[in-house]
Specification:
The chain has 122 residues and is mainly alpha-helical. The protein contains six helices and three strands, in the order ββαβααααα. The protein is 52% helix and 10% strand. The longest helix is centred in the C-terminal third of the chain and has 14 residues.
């Protein structure tokens, strides 16, 4: 199991390192089939300036928040519960995220995974 981590001293660099620092999080991620990651990544994404452009820069604050929760492995129902939104509202935000990230529906592609990868590569 690896953890994706943003080094606190380097704001733009993300590294992958063994995750011995978070054994309980790693166990939960392994059992749930998810990926454990450093909360600094979420913080960095939420602080990004809103500019008109492409990709993540076009997402609203709410869309960024939902994408960060998707990166934690939460389902639409779990995101809606955590943010106190209707599940259909979350689905609408996710559709908007896919559209803004240029991720069209394709039968052999998981857009949710691609959106999270886009987040982690930023």
């Amino acid at each position: 199991m690896t953890t994706i981590s943003a080094e606190p001293t380097t704001a733009s660099a993300a590294t992958v390192r063994p995750s011995s620092a978070w054994p309980l999080r790693d166990m939960a991620a392994g059992v749930l089939g998810g990926v454990a990651y450093d909360p600094l990544i979420e913080e960095r994404v939420m602080r990004r300036p809103h500019r008109r452009g492409e990709g993540l820069d076009t997402l609203s604050e709410r869309e960024r928040e939902i994408l960060a929760l998707m990166a934690e492995g939460l389902s639409n129902a779990a995101v809606s519960e955590q943010l106190h939104l209707a599940e259909r509202t979350v689905e609408a935000h996710i559709r908007s995220i896919f559209l803004k990230l240029g991720l069209p529906a394709q039968p052999d592609v998981n857009r949710r995974v691609l959106a999270v990868i886009t987040l982690l590569r930023s």
